[in-house]
Structures are given as structure tokens and as C-alpha cells.
């Protein structure tokens, strides 16, 4: 069967509707019994030998033409190989009622659950395709699956969501505990036991109760701001120290730290995992600590990911059995986005 | 016992030599039976209560004074807690014959093997201390152990080396295989079997012999440069494509790719691990592939690490049981530096 290409739309007649749409979910039926196909769908039918040509072009020529995105084709093929029906989601290509934009991300494919098709209206995934060097705005994540095509044409699927961050960790803070500010940490010479023991603030210099407690600048700023810590120069002095050490990043990290604590979650440094924080949602006592559940990286709200850095964070989190979460900070607002690997 | 501080050197008399040096490896004996100590050593003796004061200062005051680096103290204490004797390595503090600089890195502590001390002259580690926000020049790594003190005063020890990168993978390349350049990859429509099957170049579009082979731009550039691939515009066209996609990074990555291939090592994309390459040292046949041994990140020779990014790379590599290696590229030269976690 041959098809034609006009204004970016492929058109096939004869029994194309029956062969391709009804039985295998390609394309979109139009009046008069013909079938319209997006170029990427036509490319796949050419690849499979179901179409002979599109405007006289073979698979090789059509794929390498400007009509078809090579990365979109690779993802389309991969999802088909995995047993899914899927529809290109741009413009008029999607059945009524299915959104074509999710949270500001341009969706490339609407993928139906296995066993379903475009006629059912059920959606398994909204997939956005990205080449490995295409910057991905952090704020566009949360409702989509990102399909990243790497330089060797392997595809990495990343599921994104907007999680509820919540926990049950909280203590009544002490008042005016004396602390001393050093270059990049604060020392509390006589800490009340519950500050570390139940609040999990800081780290003991030695593993002994009553020993000097070290606080990170973030912890010191948070506690000083609430009157729990008394330090020369007050919270302003701690903030100055923090900004000296890391500029704007400090304020962003403090905002995220504060919101986590307010939600009953304990943030500790994520340094060993290359993240900002590792977090514990249910801390009653430090002696009875489980594993941290999340790794958090704090970013400016307008951050754009290099897909490879996303892959790195997600791979590491998966390897240590934690969930990767990004805190997107804009002034006082924090939006939480989780990213994890998906095998569709 | 009280000690004095003059010109950055602490001095103790009485039986300090016997109590601190002879029996526990602190300081440096001087004429007349006195003992000289670096401030960090004196701070530790104050902390332990072995010294009462230095220039009238208690531990708290001395530690927070300008005389002592808080991060150096934390590392010194940690290594002492782990059972090591160690000497500050700056200036005149090291026994004759022990180098105080290793490959351009300023060494902070010379650490002796457990059971040895400064009088033995054996060295277990040369340790450089860094706060987590201190940039670390990549070129300074290779002969030292980096002790990174994070914001919560935990210490991460990273062992660095200059590995020999070698392998036994190599095939006689075919000549003039026709390939087509797309935006960010090349397609070989009729690949000779050994290109993928034994050379492990590219990736098959489907898992079938004789199927179209996809090459990354790096692979295509390498093969075109050697006359193995015939592509319109030659290797120049491939280079242009690569530079379009990633600027100078492409040339650096190509240099590293080339050197790996020349050493008999097969580089494949490291995207899923957030690295540039994963490498296989002994590829005879693709059907019989073991696990890749190294993860490689390609950097400019003058790159400076944020310690946290180093921690991330090393943690991930460890989690997937591979060695983390950095390729430092300066024009045609590549230097190889491996970094791994160490528990001293």
C-alpha cells in the first residue's frame, strides 16, 4: 500500500482504516473511510513493511527526511515493541477528552494500557520524548513520563510525579540554647538531650550523650530563627555565614529545609549520595532510626536538567533504595517533583 | 600540662616528649627535650584533656581561634579515633624523606600504617583535607587520599590513583562501510557482521543479525576517521554534527574514546549511569559479554570538582560494582584518574 504526505499529514486510502486503525490502533479515521497518520506512525508502518512508500519514499528515505524526528521514531518503535498502542499527541491527533499538555510539558505520545487502544480513551502514560542533550525544564515534570533517547539509541523512561511530602517527626524545641558559630558549622557545648536524641538535629562529636553537638549552618539557621539557638549575632550571623559559603544556594536550601521540618520530615545532609538531603519521615528516637526514604536535591524553580544528570540522580537513588525528589524553590514557594525509573 | 603558641607553633616542655611523642606519635622533638606540636595536634591533646591549655586557651577557645582549621581538626580526630598515628605534613612537620606534595596536591596529613608511627618512616596514606564546598582541581588527584568534611562533619575518604587503562578488545576494521548521518546518530543499513558482533560498535535497531546498525556520533567519527565508514561529507561532517550537538565536549569525548579504543578497551555510552562511558576491557564476542568494569567521565584537564559531585559519581560506581575513572583531556593528551571510596 502506498500513502501520501500533505502538510505534515500522511493519508492512506483503500482498506487502511481496517488494517491499521481498527486492528492495530494506528492513525485517525477521517470521513470517507480514509486514514490519517502522523509521520512517525507512517514511518513505523514503512519499517514493518505494511506500507510500501509514503510519497514514493522508502523507510530509509522517509526516516531521514525532515518529516520524521528520529528520536520520536525510536521511542514509538520501542513502545510498540513492548506491546503498547499509542497515539502522537500533538494538535488534533488525540481523541477528544485526552489532554495534550500535562503541567506545561509538551506530550509527544499518549500511551494506552496494554490491551487498550485509542478507541477506549484510557491512558497509561503521557510520554514526552527528549534527546539526551535536550535541556528539560524541571517545572515541566510531574505529570509525564520522560523518554530519553541516548546517543546509542537506548531509551530511558523516567516517571515523574508531584508527591505529598509528609512525616510525623517533630519535637518541642528548647529555647535559647547557647551555640558558637565557626566557619562552616556551629558547636553547641552543652546540648539538651532531646535536640539530637529525639529531634535528630546535628551530630555528636563523639558517640556519647552530653557531648558537644555539631550543627550544620542550615540546622543552626533554622533553630536560631525559632529562638531555639542563641548565637552571637543571631540568625543574621548564621545566614551571613551560609551565604558566604554558598551564595543563593544557601537560601534555597534553607527554604527547603524549613518546609521539610514543618511537614514533620527530618532532613539530614545528603552529601554521601551527592544530594542536598536524605530525609526521614518518622523519627521518634535517634536510637531507633530506620533508613532514610528520600534523597532531595534543591534547585531553582527555573532549573533545566541535562537528561544525563537526571539519569545519574535517579540511578543512584534506585541503587540505594530511596526515592529521588527535587525541591524547586522560588522565593518562599517550594514545589516537589519526584523522578524514578519506569519499565513500561 | 600547659603549652605555648608562638608563630603558629605550639611548644610544650616538661615530659611532653615522652608522654606525647614517644608513646603516642604527636609532634616533633626539638633540642633540649621539648616538643613542638602543630596547632591541630595540640587541639586534639586539649580535647582529650592531655593538655590543660595552650597560651591560656581551653579546647573550645583554641579550636574556634584562627590557629586551628576546624575541618583539619575533624579529620585528625577521626583518623586518631580509627587507630592511626599521623603527622601534619606542611613545612617542616614531616620526617626527612617523606614527600609533602603528591602530584601537585597539598598534603595535610601523612598517615602511618596502624601499628607504625612517625619514627618508622612508612606511610599508609597522604591525606588532603577539603570542606565539602572547596573546589578540588582534578589534576591534583592521583596520589592522595581526599578527606572531605561535609556540612554535618561526617568525613568521606576518597582514594585516588592513576590507573593503567588496558584491554584486549580489538578487531580489524572493515573499509568504507556506507553509513547515513542523521541529526545525532548514524545508520548503517548493511553492516558487516563483525562490526557489532565482535567489535561491539553501535547498537542494532532490532535484535537480529543483518539488521540496520545505529552508531553514536562518537563511534561514527572514530570509524570514519579510520576509513572504516563512508559517509557523505566524510569525518568532517560527523565532527560538525557532534560539535553542533555538544561543542567542545565532543572533541574531548572523541579524544578519550579514541584512546580507549587504541588501548584495546571498548567504550559504550554511560548515559544510564550518568557517565560518559561504560567500558569493557575484554570483548571477544557480543554474545559473550561480561559486565563493564569502568565508568568514565570525560573532563577538561583544568576541571575543578565540587566534592559533592565527586561523592555522587563514586557512590554510584560503587553501587553498580564498577570503578570510577576520570579522563582529563588537554588537546591530545589524556590523563586517567580513578577515585574510589576508602575506609581507612
How would you describe this structure to a colleague?
The structure is a homodimer of 344-residue chains. In chain A, strands 6-9-10-12-13-25-24-22-21-20 form a ten-stranded mixed sheet, with helices on both faces. The longest helix of chain A has 15 residues, at 248-262. With 344 residues, chain A is α+β, with helices and mostly antiparallel strands. The radius of gyration of chain A is 27 Å and the shape is elongated. Helices cover 26% and strands 28% of the residues of chain A. In chain A, a hairpin with an 8-residue loop joins β17 and β18. Chain A has a domain at 1-68: MutS, DNA mismatch repair protein, domain I.
The assembly state of the depicted protein chains is homodimer
* Termini separation of chain A: 31 Å
> Under the CATH scheme, which architecture of the domain at 1-68 in chain A would be assigned?
3-Layer(aba) Sandwich
Stretches of chain A where pLDDT falls below 50 for ≥5 residues?
Answer: 94-99
Task: Give, in spatial order, the strands making up the sheet with the most strands of chain A.
Answer: 6-9-10-12-13-25-24-22-21-20
What does the largest sheet of chain A look like? Answer: 10 strands, mixed
Helix content of chain A: 25-40%
- Overall 3D shape of chain A: elongated
Beta-strand residue fraction of chain A? 25-35%
Question: Summarize this, please?
Answer:
Two copies of one chain form a homodimer. With about 350 residues, the first copy, chain A, is α+β, with helices and mostly antiparallel strands. Helix content of chain A is about 25%, strand content about 30%.
Amino acid at each position: 500500500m502506498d500513502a501520501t504526505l500533505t502538510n505534515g499529514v500522511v493519508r492512506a486510502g483503500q482498506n487502511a482504516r481496517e488494517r491499521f486503525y481498527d486492528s492495530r490502533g494506528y492513525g485517525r479515521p477521517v470521513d470517507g473511510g480514509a486514514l490519517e497518520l502522523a509521520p512517525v506512525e507512517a514511518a513505523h508502518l514503512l519499517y514493518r513493511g505494511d506500507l510500501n512508500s509514503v510519497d514514493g519514499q522508502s523507510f530509509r528515505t522517509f526516516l531521514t527526511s525532515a518529516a520524521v524526528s528520529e528520536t520520536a521514531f525510536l521511542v514509538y518503535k520501542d513502545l510498540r515493541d513492548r506491546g503498547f498502542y499509542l497515539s502522537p499527541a500533538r494538535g488534533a491527533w488525540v481523541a477528544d477528552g485526552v489532554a495534550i499538555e500535562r503541567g506545561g510539558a509538551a506530550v509527544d505520545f499518549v500511551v494506552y494500557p496494554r490491551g487498550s487502544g485509542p478507541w477506549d480513551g484510557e491512558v497509561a502514560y503521557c510520554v514526552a520524548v527528549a534527546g539526551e542533550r535536550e535541556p528539560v525544564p524541571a517545572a515541566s515534570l510531574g505529570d509525564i513520563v520522560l523518554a530519553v533517547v541516548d546517543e546509542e539509541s537506548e531509551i530511558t523512561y523516567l516517571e515523574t510525579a508531584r508527591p505529598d511530602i509528609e512525616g510525623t517527626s517533630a519535637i518541642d524545641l528548647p529555647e535559647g540554647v547557647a551555640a558558637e558559630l565557626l566557619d562552616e558549622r556551629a558547636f553547641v557545648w552543652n546540648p539538651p538531650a532531646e535536640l539530637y536524641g529525639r529531634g535528630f538535629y546535628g551530630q555528636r562529636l563523639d558517640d556519647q550523650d552530653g557531648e558537644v553537638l555539631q550543627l550544620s549552618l542550615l540546622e543552626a539557621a533554622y533553630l536560631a530563627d525559632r529562638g531555639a539557638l542563641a548565637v552571637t549575632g543571631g540568625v543574621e550571623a548564621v545566614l551571613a555565614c551560609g551565604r558566604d559559603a554558598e551564595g543563593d544556594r544557601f537560601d534555597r536550601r534553607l527554604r527547603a529545609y524549613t518546609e521539610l521540618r514543618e511537614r514533620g520530615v527530618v532532613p539530614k545532609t545528603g552529601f554521601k549520595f551527592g544530594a542536598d538531603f536524605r530525609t526521614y519521615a518518622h523519627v521518634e528516637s535517634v536510637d531507633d532510626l530506620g533508613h532514610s526514604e528520600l534523597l532531595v536535591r534543591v534547585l531553582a524553580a527555573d532549573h533545566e536538567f541535562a537528561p544525563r544528570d537526571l539519569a545519574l540522580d535517579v540511578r543512584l537513588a534506585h541503587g540505594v533504595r530511596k526515592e529521588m525528589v527535587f525541591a524547586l524553590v522560588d522565593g518562599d514557594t517550594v514545589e516537589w517533583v519526584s523522578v524514578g525509573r519506569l519499565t513500561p
